[in-house]
């Protein structure tokens, strides 16, 4: 079983990518999209991005079960962060282009309904197993459930000295949800201020500048004792989320007939497969969560940004080239359906399932058993918890800012 001796999990992979503008309240888009002429056109689902989620969550699951097979499998968290930053920013820009504002309270409400009910269900199950069974994998889950429900696991892990302890038990993987939610809380506010007080071109430049700040901050913080702080901090991982946001801003700024868009499309297509290959090599060879000396120092400072650039290249290629070979492959119905509907549930349940099976003494066939049980729990989570709350999230709510 993979140990939580290092950061080793992924971003919430099931984030909703439909345009979430309350029905009946959207205003007609202005001709220039308020400086983002392609924002509305680019706000729908992209099947390739959903398929990419499936691949990424499979990496995370495999890493937690057999870390020796994929020592760098936790690189999927970087990919998820960039993908999430892109999707969220694209939705916010689409809303701004249509209406001239961003309804913050409805946005936070939709995020809560999308993410929290399924998480609370997981926390409840872990807490019950902790208090009613002797399974070692669920010891201390009651405390961990409270921290996870408040999205504070990343804060606790950032403060741990030395190797990670077992304080968070089966919910240690929810550290990345803390990073995500803290970003969701702050970035819409920052973006709204930029949109209101800066020209569209300046919004792009500010977003690019913000991407550079976490790199400088990591370099200032780096020493081996600060590894947990750097890996788990929202401030130290923000460039990976903002890299996706930057892609969304760039694409929203360019009209469909802009020659620069054709150049981006061409180069994204050329670089997509090399970028995917580089990420695969990291997952296969790079001991991300182990101490590898100078390599670890490079990874924890500039390496995160390099991976963000690779991830952003993939996102751009899938967005700009839906007819490309990679997009067609990742858009295959099974991959896209799992990524769209089950990837969040698989992410939530896979690590507790690993701990459950290990507590029961299972060793042979652990990877297929974990995958099967995680998918079954994800199906139950989707149909019994997530889908009903998603329907509520799509209902119109007044309150535009």
Looking at this protein, list some descriptive labels.
single chain, 401 residues, mainly alpha, globular
Describe the overall structure.
The protein is mainly α and 401 residues long. It is built from 15 helices and no strands. Helix 6 (175-197) packs across helix 9. It starts with 46 loop residues before the first helix and ends in an 8-residue tail after the last helix. Residues 1-29 have low confidence and may be disordered.
Compact summary:
This protein has 401 residues and is mainly alpha-helical. It contains 15 helices and no strands.
Roughly what is the average pLDDT, rounded to an integer? 88
Amount of helix:
55-70%
As a percent range, the share of strand residues is: under 5%
Q: Which class of secondary structure composition applies to the elements?
A: mainly alpha
Uncertain stretches: 1-29
Largest sheet: none
Write down the secondary-structure element order: HHHHHHHHHHHHHHH
Rg over C-alpha atoms, rounded to the nearest angstrom: 20 Å
* Total helical segments: 15
Shape label: globular
Cα(first) to Cα(last) distance is: 47 Å
- Strand tally, please? 0
